[in-house]
Amino acid sequence: MRVASTITAGLGLAGLLAGGVAAAAPPPKPASQALSWGACSAGQKELIAAGAQCAKVTVPLDYADPGGRTIQLTISRIKAKSPERRGILLSNPGGPGGTGLASTLALRPALKDVADRYDLIGFDPRFLGESTPLTCGPAPRPAPPAPTTTPREDFEASVRAARDTARRCQEHGDNAALLPHASTRNVARDMDAIRAALGERKLSYYGVSYGADLGAVYTQLFPRRADRVVLDSSTDPAATQYELFQRSGAPAEAALAPRVRADVRELLARAERRPIPVQGQRLNAPLLRMIFKQLVQHEEYDPQLAEVLGDLKKAAAGEGVEPGPALAGLLELLSSPELESSMVGGAIFMCGDGGWPAGGWPKNPATYWKNMQRSRTTQPVFGPYVNGMIAPCAFWGSEPREPGTKIGNDVPVLLLQARHDNNVPYEGALALHRRLTGSRLLTADIRAHGVYGRGNDGLTPVPCADRAVNTYLRDGELPAADLTCPKPEARS
């Protein structure tokens, strides 16, 4: 299941482009450097098995001060095998906060023979994974929900948690010096530094979710360095992060069938008074909404949603329940340190990007509560979640160094979007398509988040989308016009 990435994506995976203006002057050219290639770290088992090598690329902490402090990015490389080598292909798996050292390797099954034409380059964005990692100090162990609660008490707990994350991030270690340089613009600059370090004139790129927004920023900052660019599941570049999060509520609500909706609402009404006990844990309404939000993102998850609902209904009725695989996996993920790290990584970039308050997040908690309560009329299931989830950015102690990136260029780009994406709604891709005048938009008539290479994750592939991407990356041919891929037949 594509769950870990979509949880962090739901925390505001874009809006990182919102507002602001393009850079007044072109960024300085990255300095050339000799790379020392060697074995990847022991934790990168997929890369090691594939015969990849890894190296460190040194980049400025602050691109406005190229002679000042530096940081190191870890990159991976699997060399092209074809004599018709095109160049380098980078990727980003989304988040924000997702590590990407093995993400380009993961595209190989979908790329097929196209993979042999590129050096496949993975990288962890600055301050994540193996690229000068930044942490926010140990999080306090959350107190389990009380046997009884109210929506207001749950909301106040989320405010305290967001405030604490902001404080820990600002105060921990050397973060005060590093955090102002955690931005999508700097990650795009880092990508260009990787290109230069590899001695390449241009780079090709695939990005999904936040990775698509990152790719759009790259085309804006480095239009002459962009070769073949594929952006999958993107957002409206004029919206703030909070606005984008709010907009995901309506399509998520529409994804619930009437009978499912009735069961979900009944469980939420119960959990808003008495959290539901499951194997020693108590699931309050905000946690349930987060779980349900993940399970409506892909049509293929509908059976898991039914299974989870069955388990929760039994638990709410006081029956002893051994969670099935779907609920057990979600509960394990929600309590995992990996998810905590990913969410902190997401906060680092959400709060470092464009505008003040950071990313358009309101600073007054009362705004979230008001919007949350107002949304219950039309979006009783997901409205409180997408309107009331307050980000640490509301309490961030430092202003972003730069405005967001205003997108508007004619770089040839292939855009992919699911028509019923309830994480980043379809209208956002239309808005970006209008800004990227050299782009073609491929619409998949499915409910999903991420269109290309879905078969890699055990989901139903969209063959015409996979063909279009591979044709573009292989031959440089965009579709002659925007096109729609019909809904594929589900796997038996």
Write a brief structural summary.
With 492 residues, this protein is of the alpha/beta class. Helices cover 38% and strands 13% of the residues.
Structure commentary:
The protein has 492 residues and is α/β, with parallel strands linked by helices. The protein has 2 domains: 12-134 and 177-240 and 406-485, Alpha/Beta hydrolase fold, catalytic domain (Rossmann fold, 3-Layer(aba) Sandwich), CATH 3.40.50; 151-176 and 242-395, no CATH class. 38% of the residues lie in helices and 13% in strands. It is built from 18 helices and 11 strands. The protein has helices spanning 4-9, 45-49, 108-111, 151-171, 175-178, 184-197, 210-221, 241-247, 249-254, 258-271, 285-295, 302-316, 325-334, 337-352, 365-375, 383-388, 426-435, 463-475; strands spanning 53-60, 70-78, 87-92, 118-123, 203-208, 226-232, 276-278, 281-283, 413-418, 439-444, 483-485. It has a 9-stranded mixed beta sheet with strand order 1-2-4-3-5-6-9-10-11, with helices on both faces. A two-stranded antiparallel ribbon has the order 7-8. Helix 18 links the parallel strand 10 and strand 11 (483-485). Helix 10 runs antiparallel to helix 11 (285-295). The chain is globular and about 65 Å long. The two termini are 18 Å apart. Residues 1-25 have low confidence and may be disordered.
